[in-house]
Design goal:
Layout (H helix, E strand, L loop, with lengths): L16 H7 L15 H11 L12 H17 L2 E2 L6 E11 L5 E6 L2 E6 L4 E3 L6 E11 L5 E2 L4 E2 L10 E5 L8 H9 L1 H7 L4 E5 L2 H6 L2 H6 L5 E4 L15 E5 L1 H8 L6 H8 L7 E27 L10 E7 L4 E2 L7 E2 L2 H20 L7 E7 L7 H8 L8 E7 L10 E5 L6 H11 L3 E3 L14 H5 L5 E6 L9 H13 L13 H20 L11 H6 L10
Parallel strand pairs: 6-9, 9-10, 10-12, 14-17, 14-18, 18-21, 19-20
Antiparallel strand pairs: 1-13, 2-11, 2-13, 3-4, 3-13, 5-12, 6-13, 7-8, 13-17, 15-16, 19-21
Helix pairs in contact: 2-10, 2-15, 3-10, 10-15, 12-15
Length: 554
């Protein structure tokens, strides 16, 4: 897609911003009744946010700043109340780390023999937070999956001393665990290692992980910058704690790490298929050499509130969230801009359309609505994690969250998938709202992907808030499964690629349908007699909201 002001303005067939403005298509029709969600408003928002002018909306860059101002102006035009720390904004400082070295290596030494693994080839490691040259050297210890959970009776570190060592851990978690619980435990394993005194972690692939995607995909992004939010006290946030580095290696490098030890890497992989292998010391030491550059950038979440109509319930908040940032630009030939049309300009457009519809209605919901447009999602849910840790409103006032991220709007769907709906009483409310819109709610068709832990609602779940992550379903309106095929095509070909732009065959009437179901879900929750509750015995509810009242599963 060409730049808005560049030569060769995109034609109407591409849905470019210039074509939309020049044709006047968004302004030709008479104004719709108050509260109506229209295809024109959704198309206009996505077209603006996904234009080349915004350069992929990477945080700390001009394009993302333009996008933030656009969202804030929309909130203001709706008459919503600012709910940030500075008007609609919640500014966040980020530590941005990049490489100052031309090459980074991990050197394995054993019996006076060395093997060198190169970043971006057989090693994937990010930059550190030490400015300049850095060398980290330590012995190795294998820690199984590297998991710890008192609630589940898991302690992969039992009997192991990892102080001052580099731990080697299998990716993911045992197949016996619920996939969403497993994904959560896997996400926090770096923090567990740091808490026990480890200095670094090297992750090796399981057989299952190796079948999910080629090593080349991980290797291709190894040298990209990394970011983490900075706490008000100056420390950095995130789950890694004091760990100095976290790396991944390919299977050939993993085999060398295990050579000469109690079990070979192949044997460890085989054991992981049926259980959790016990840890043991590995022979040899490894040394990481890299050089880093560290700068500070500033970005912001955006927050707005629509007051509820019931004096007894207006202090309670139903949160709707969507992330604004994307991947920015890459070097090389051809299309270099990650426009992020579906991921997640479409999600932000949905949130704004829902907010606009509620703001225009005469009869508002009983509970208040809080709209959160986050930053830093693509770098590891940074903006939502910051908000969960430093909320601009009393966190206890937020009764639930509906998150919107990368809806597939290229197929007319007949069902929706609400990740997390089976964990709280939000499930029946979502099902009722879907039925009212002529849709059904389907169970998770890909539990192995554990999407419940992979978007901006997850940090709020860890703050004890019931949440659902709403996605378009796989069934189409003709009774077929073409919507599954549409999602598969997008994920394989366009996800996190420059081709996620306005050349995608987006159906704007489908976008309206998706926005309306989100509005109906939000309205149903906001008007319900009781606030959503975790189900008794649910892992996330018991771990993160132990004192909160629970509900029995029906």
């Amino acid at each position: 897609m060409k730049n808005l002001f560049g030569a060769g303005l995109p034609g109407a067939a591409t849905g470019g911003m210039a074509a939309l403005l020049l044709s006047g298509a968004a302004f030709a029709a008479p104004p719709p009744p108050p509260g109506t969600i229209t295809a024109a408003e959704l198309q206009a928002t996505v077209t603006f946010l996904a234009d080349d002018l915004l350069e992929g909306r990477q945080i700390g860059r001009r394009g993302h700043a333009i996008a933030m101002r656009y969202v804030a102006s929309q909130f203001a035009a709706m008459g919503l109340e600012p709910a940030g720390t500075q008007g609609f904004y919640q500014p966040i400082s980020f530590e941005e780390r990049s490489f100052a070295s031309e090459r980074e290596t991990l050197t394995l030494t054993r019996d006076d023999k060395t093997s060198v693994f190169v970043n971006g080839v057989d090693l994937s490691v990010g930059p550190g937070n030490v400015v300049g040259a850095e060398t980290i050297s330590a012995p190795l210890v294998f820690v199984g999956f590297g998991l710890a959970s008192k609630e589940l009776g898991i302690d992969d570190y039992a009997g192991l001393d990892v102080r001052g060592k580099i731990v080697v851990a299998l990716a993911g978690a045992p197949n016996s665990l619920n996939s969403e619980v497993a994904a959560h435990l896997a996400r926090v394993k770096t923090g567990e290692a740091a808490a026990l005194g480890a200095v670094g972690m090297i992750t090796v692939r399981t057989i299952a992980q190796a079948t999910r995607g080629p090593w080349s995909k991980a290797a291709s992004t190894a040298r990209l910058p990394r970011r983490n939010f900075i706490n008000p006290d100056g420390s950095t946030g995130g789950d890694a704690g004091s760990l100095k580095f976290s790396a991944n290696v390919d299977d050939a490098a993993a085999a060398q790490l295990f050579a000469g030890s109690a079990m070979s890497f192949v044997a460890v992989q085989a054991a992981a298929e049926t259980g959790a292998p016990h840890g043991f010391a590995l022979t040899g030491t490894v040394k990481l050499d890299r050089s880093n550059a560290v700068t500070t950038i500033t970005s912001a979440n955006l927050l707005a509130r629509l007051a509820g109509s019931d004096p007894a319930l207006t202090d309670q908040l139903v949160l709707l969230s969507a992330h604004l940032d994307h991947l920015g630009m890459r070097t090389g030939e051809g299309d270099t801009i990650y426009n992020g049309a579906l991921d997640n300009a479409a999600g932000v457009a949905t949130l704004l359309a829902v907010a606009r519809s509620f703001a225009a209605e005469k009869k508002r919901p009983k509970r208040s609505l809080l709209f959160l447009v986050t930053t830093g999602e693509e770098g590891g849910l940074m903006g939502s994690s910051y908000f969960a840790r430093y909320p601009t409103v009393g966190i206890e006032r937020i009764v639930s969250e509906v998150n919107i991220d990368m809806p597939i709007l290229t197929c007319d769907f007949a069902d929706v998938i609400a990740y997390g709906a089976n964990r709280s009483t939000m499930g029946p409310l979502v099902a009722a709202a879907a039925k009212k819109q002529g849709l059904t709610m389907s169970p998770d068709p890909q539990p192995v992907e554990a999407l419940f832990t992979r978007s901006d609602h997850y940090p709020l779940v860890r703050a004890g808030i019931p949440a659902v992550f709403l996605k378009t379903g796989w069934r189409d309106t003709q009774g077929g499964m073409t919507c599954r095929d549409a999602e598969t095509l997008f994920r394989r070909t366009h996800y996190h690629e420059p081709s996620d732009d306005l050349s995608r065959p987006i159906d704007w009437n489908v976008a309206v349908k998706f926005a309306r179901i989100n509005a109906e879900i939000s309205r149903t929750i906001a008007n319900a007699h009781d606030a959503p509750r975790w189900y008794s015995g649910d892992y996330f509810g018991e771990v993160f909201a132990p004192a909160a009242p629970k509900a029995k599963r029906e």
